[in-house]
Specification:
Elements lengths: L3 E2 L10 E2 L6 H10 L4 H8 L3 H13 L1 H11 L12 H4 L1 E2 L2 E2 L3
Antiparallel strand pairs: 1-2, 3-4
Helix pairs in contact: 1-3, 2-3
Length: 99
Amino acid sequence: MSDIVSTPDTLGGAPRIDGRRIGVHHVAKRVVDAEVSPAQVAADYNLDLADVHRALTYYYDHPDEMREVRKQRRTIPDGMRVVRGPADLDRRDGVEKEA
C-alpha cells in the first residue's frame, strides 16, 4: 500500500498516491462524485484497492485541504482549455478542425 504524499513539483502540491501522478482529488472525483466503485477505480488506474481506500481516507480526514484543492482545480489558467473527450481534441479555439 502506498502513502499519500504532497510535493510542490507534482500536481501543484496536491496530495497524491506516492509514486504516481494520481491525486487524492482524482480518486475522490471518481468514487464520491461519479459513484464509480473503488474496485473499478483501482482497475482503471492500475492501483491496489488499498491505495484507493487510503486516498479516500485522506480525502475525508482533510476536508478543508481537499476543498481548497478542488477549488484550485476548477480554475483554468488563461490560454488553457478543458478537454472532456476525444471530440475536444479535434477543436482549436472553439472551432471544429477540418478533416
